[in-house]
């Protein structure tokens, strides 16, 4: 009986050797095909336009900033108005201190918060609230964060300082690390977690020794992206660290930093200052570009094996 049913099915199945031609002549298929082609063409055009402007910006920075790159830029402090020579030693050191301390603050907080969201994000209302606030912080204008730190910290201690600038850009970096850590931990297969639980490992050890270790490259990527994000922030530092024409490594005093110095020198009428501003812009741009390339290389290894 089964054989007769199979033969009936085979004989009743229509044979259409011209199926491809029929589908091409179908108006719905043709409309979808043209929609697909137009979408691909627009995507390619957008990519070309984006790359064109990126290359334009990089070429302009290289042409105008190459003249400001010299050994003096890394060994001498900022010059006085309408004077020759000088460099960017104090803002370079200041930026390294601000970004370094911000990374030390934001990295453990962001990773621990990301672990909490990945482990308890579906079980706790507090975790849901934390994720919601993190998403808001990711899209918050940096100048608003700078004003917040100014009102909470600078206005109370009554002076600008490197610590105030560190706190401001840390608030920008923490949400980036939190969301990246949360997303990376969610990529870990459930079977890997279940195997660890089956061996009797406690939940905290599974989170730290199994899940986090499996996606450590992706977590490092998030940290590098956060560093790249805060390296060029100017508005928060205008309200917190301000600037310092002289070399100072005291984090409790106003501190020079590259973004603010670039802004001030670029708007000045002095040719020497504008040349240093272009050189500093080239330095910041290629530093951030190098961090982004490094993060993309690590990001390609994000999938746990």
Walkthrough of the structure:
- This protein is mostly helical and 305 residues long.
- Helix content is 75%, strand content 0%.
- The chain has 14 helices and no strands.
- The chain has helices at 2-12, 19-25, 27-65, 71-75, 89-120, 125-139, 142-157, 162-185, 190-198, 203-214, 216-231, 235-238, 258-266, 271-299.
Labels describing this entry:
mainly alpha, 305 residues, 0% strand
Brief account:
The chain is mainly α and 305 residues long.
Outline the secondary-structure elements:
Layout (H helix, E strand, L loop, with lengths): L1 H11 L6 H7 L1 H39 L5 H5 L13 H32 L4 H15 L2 H16 L4 H24 L4 H9 L4 H12 L1 H16 L3 H4 L19 H9 L4 H29 L6
Shape: globular
Largest sheet geometry:
none
Rg estimate, integer Å: 28 Å
CATH topology category name of the largest domain: MetI-like fold
**Secondary structure tally, helices:** 14
């Amino acid at each position: 009986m089964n054989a007769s049913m199979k033969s009936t099915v085979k004989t009743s199945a229509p044979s259409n050797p011209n199926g491809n031609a029929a589908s091409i002549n179908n108006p719905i298929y043709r409309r979808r095909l043209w929609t697909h082609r137009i979408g691909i063409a627009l995507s390619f055009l957008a990519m070309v336009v984006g790359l064109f402007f990126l290359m334009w910006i990089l070429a302009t920075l290289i042409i105008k900033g190459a003249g400001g790159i010299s050994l003096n830029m890394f060994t001498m402090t900022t010059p006085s108005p309408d004077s020759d020579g000088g460099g960017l030693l104090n803002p370079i050191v200041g930026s390294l201190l601000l970004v370094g301390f911000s990374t030390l603050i934001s990295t453990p907080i962001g990773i621990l918060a990301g672990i909490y969201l990945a482990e308890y994000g579906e079980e706790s209302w507090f975790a849901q609230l934390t994720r919601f606030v993190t998403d808001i912080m990711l899209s918050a204008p940096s100048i608003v964060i700078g004003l917040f730190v100014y009102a909470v910290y600078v206005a109370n201690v009554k002076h600008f300082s490197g610590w105030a600038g560190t706190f401001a850009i840390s608030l920008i970096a923490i949400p980036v690390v939190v969301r990246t850590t949360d997303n990376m931990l969610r990529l870990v297969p459930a079977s890997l977690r279940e195997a660890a639980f089956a061996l009797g490992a406690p939940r905290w050890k599974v989170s730290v020794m199994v899940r986090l270790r499996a996606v450590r490259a992706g977590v490092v990527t998030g940290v590098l992206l956060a560093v790249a994000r805060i390296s060029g922030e100017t508005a928060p530092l205008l309200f917190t660290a301000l600037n310092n024409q002289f070399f100072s490594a005291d984090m409790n005093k106003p501190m020079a930093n590259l973004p603010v110095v670039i802004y001030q020198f670029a708007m000045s009428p002095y040719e020497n200052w504008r040349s240093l501003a272009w050189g500093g812009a080239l330095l910041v741009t290629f530093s951030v570009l190098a961090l982004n390339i490094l993060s993309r290389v690590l990001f390609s290894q994000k999938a746990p094996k």
